[in-house]
Amino acid sequence: MAKDATRDTAWGPVEIHREAARAAADALRSAGCPVELHEPNLPTYAPPGEGKRLAKKHKEENPEYEWRGDSYLLLTDRLRLLEVARFLRDELGYDMLIDATAVDFDAADDHLWAVYQLLALGRKTRLTLKTMVPKADCRIDSLVPVWPAANWHEREAAEMFGIVYTGHPDPRPLLLPEDWVGHPLRKDYQYPDEYHGISCK
Amino acid sequence: MDDTTMERPLREGERLVELDVRTQDVEINMGPQHPATHGVLRVLLRADGEILTGAQSHLGYLHRCAEKIGESVDWLQYLPYTDRYDYLSAMNNNLAYSLAVEKLLGIEVPERAQYIRVILAELNRICSHLVAVGTYGLDIGAFTPFFYALRERELLLDIFEKICGARLTYAFIRPGGLMNDAPAGWTDQVRAFTDLFERKWREYWDLLVDNKIFVERTANVGVISEEQAIAWGCTGPMLRGSGVDWDLRRDQPYLVYDRLDFEVVVGQGYRGTVGDCFDRNYVRMYEMLESNRIVRQCLEQMPEGEIQHPEVGLVLRPAPGEAYVGIENPRGELGHYLVSDGNKIARRLRVRGPSFSNLALAEHLLPGCMLADAAAIIGSVDIVVGETDR
């Protein structure tokens, strides 16, 4: 197979994934799926002293400061996740789920982010799919029926963030002991004082 | 056994001995202290005689909260923790994390640093595959090839020791470049190794891979189909062993891999079926030769110059945002998903380890196999538990 000239940065191709995100968003929207395409600017480098000053200035002038990174798709209605996942796999060729995880950005936020990294082996593109999971009703459909790879990733996210993946075939804890209290990667997690008589202080 | 269940009158002196024998499934704990589980993985096996009827992996014995630690130390302070996920390929782990942080910062390191990074990553790949192939022989009863493999690994560890002072956990490739430049004479030592290695490689092939007993134990055992490998998110030799032509170094090139000429080794079903244990080992064997070729090309192309981005200090403050970078580790795709809020500490640091996804499939391969094949199948996945548990 011929080599593709897709390398545009030292950390890997970027532009090809941006185009893929645009194409996927168009296809999903025309199929009636509730997705938004976000195309933040890529990070740019500012020298250390300068960067700190700029960040401070930026924060004062604009508290909602600019988010940087790769393009991603935001699913606005999390209840339609399975439908979107099936469409991505069957119609757009995203045959591999690389990672499924969650992010708790701030303890004050009322939602977690569920983040999925997808890979299309045929098109050689990546896609990031995100959706919000409210902390008050912390449940989301399991993607195991679409990609079996989600199995352990979701078990890990479930114990670390307290997300309930409905329809998961094997919802036991994976890395933590079965009697562990709390969800360690939540920002409001309280460290335990003791565990089975062992002091943790 | 069929004779005893035949309904015929008993001859004189014949007794019914097996008609009333009931078999009961036996549950066997393989691990957490079992040499074939490469660390502290525990697999609960259920067997009906010699045939496995079920398997369940239990993880967490080596869980060291890497992701939680990532949310409490500086970006640069986290680097040594990356060494400890997959301790057999620490250089690659450093590289994966450094590239992700560099993406978040929006910087690219000087060209010389990129070439040295590729050399180290590929030498580390050889080093890791040597252990994988050697211990795989050990798992299924071939003791000698292990020592042959460790003999060459020792030369590689000397090379690593010369450039960074450590033999296993390096913390050498760091966000912004490298810890230091290659010392005098280092490239000659690497060149000497690449020349030696091709000759030595033949020995492992003759001693282990072409050995009839090895072939009998691995061919047609633990077959993973192409669809299964993709659906379960397998990467690296697990995926290529099943005949999928996918390598991030070629298909999503990072650093200077687009300038290098190498083949992606794919399982051929050389001794049995495509995707059996033999093929996964075959891919690892030939990948070592390809890595050797890459190292040689890098030595020729490597320019002089800086090895560190001039303005990256010790305290990094990436702009608020996120970055995902996945690179081809010896075991598959090691991805870091980093989220920054503009501070000197990560908001979220997610590690996607290749062994984690590869192992998830293994327990589904075991039912229906012979008990003795459990070691062959788990060994062929080549897990490092430090990475599945993190």
Average residue-wise pLDDT of chain B: 86
Largest interface: A-B, 57 and 66 residues
| Low-confidence blocks of residues of chain A | 1-5
Number of helices of chain A: 4
Choose one word for the global shape of chain B.
globular
Estimated share of beta-strand residues of chain B: 5-15%
Structural class of chain A: alpha/beta
Work out the number of β strands of chain B: 8
CATH architecture of chain B: Orthogonal Bundle
Bulk shape of chain A: globular
Residue stretches of chain B low in confidence (pLDDT < 50, at least 5 long) are: none
Quickly count the domains of chain B: 1
The CATH topology of the domain at 15-143 in chain A is Beta Polymerase, domain 2
Order of helices and strands of chain B: HEEEHHHHHEEHHHHHHEEEHHH
Oligomer: heterodimer
Largest sheet of chain B: 3 strands, antiparallel
| Major pleated sheet of chain A | 5 strands, mixed
Give Rg of chain A in angstroms.
19 Å
> Can you give the helix content of chain B as a percent range?
40-55%
Percent range for helical residues of chain A?
Answer: 25-40%
